[in-house]
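Protein in question quoted in full.
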Amino acid sequence: MDARAIIAKVRDKHTPTQEELQWFANGLADRSVSDAQAGAFAMAVLLNGLGDEGRVNLTLAMRDSGDVLEWDLPGPVLDKHSTGGVGDCVSLLFAPALAACGVFVPMISGRGLGHTGGTLDKMEAIPGVCAQISEDQLHEVTAKVGCAIVGATAQLAPADRRLYAIRDVTSTVESIDLITASILSKKLASTRGGLILDVKAGSGAFMKSTDDARRLATALVTTANGAGSPTAALISDMDEPLAPVMGNALEVAVCMEVLAGNRAAAPRLYDLTVALGGKLLSLAGVEAEDEGEAAVAKAIDSGQAMERFSRLVAELGGPPDMEADWHTHLPKAPVIRDVVAPESGHLASVNGEALGLTVVGLGGGRRVETDKIDPSVGITEFAPLGTKFARGDRICQVHARNDAAAQEAEAAILAAIALGDKPESRPLIREVIG
């Protein structure tokens, strides 16, 4: 086969065959397809698309460019993926809660991207935790604990790793077909028993509108189901942070509060975790949806999820007493500063992306790949939309490395919010797809 002929097919609005896409994906993985050819392919897909069948075939081809994990466990093997948002630490609740419900969740997660936090960065905010483990270790941890939250190995979907880097420098990141194949090739390489997708929409999401989120969710659900994995998506609201905290160790701390039985510490986070878990248990045929939600809620409220998460932390090299002494183990920033309302009014709107970038500016994320993250910094006690303030009331707290960084973050937070009339309430879950 010839890469040029495959590129020409997409350029001319014809769909390559499954065999051609598999050959191209293998060429991405072993570098027999050049960077120029990969970039031309990505641009042709962005401009012309692949159609439903072509998108499924590209996803499977990228999955099959590397290892595809096989599981021999006494229960369903399921997974979740979020498209990214601000204060989104669902995975830290979701994986152990589902494990406590009798299923297995070998969750392959990523690092922070742009203004959104990364699950691996949150896990590694816990001292000693190493989230990059081998496939053999992943099998072992999942079997022992019921879940894992780790990074992808180099052997999982290597075609995606290559194409992702090329998309980043060729202005082809926005392609729905390529986004879909990128997300699902990694997920389907680790599990095919069932997948729930949390597709964010709003100011703190990559997809700002419900329409754009619906397009992506529909493509993901259609493709995953076409590839043989029962899948559904919730389109969830990201016009305000999901949890009232942002920053790696701070998000771990609020998850520990919820796992300890204090759902009021992050009610939106708790509710979305329960909804996602209930839907996934229903998809996999484990429980009816309402019964699944009740099971997930019980797993969290009873402390069973906390026990699973603490065991996972220990298996990944973290403290063996995380459940009992997490306050002591998590790093803390030296400067904590109140951000107060400059005038009276309700919290009318929030620019979630700006808040995420504020955390990055504090050192809680990366501007370039080589940046070292400070896990202690971020924002806590961020007020919900609609909260009424008098002048001088606290809106949130900034956790920073020094006074200058705290002052800069305070200014950025005040620029990211609007005070005014009370906004209309909006549902946490905007739509269900599939």
User: Anything to note?
Assistant: DSSP finds 17 helices and twelve strands in the chain.
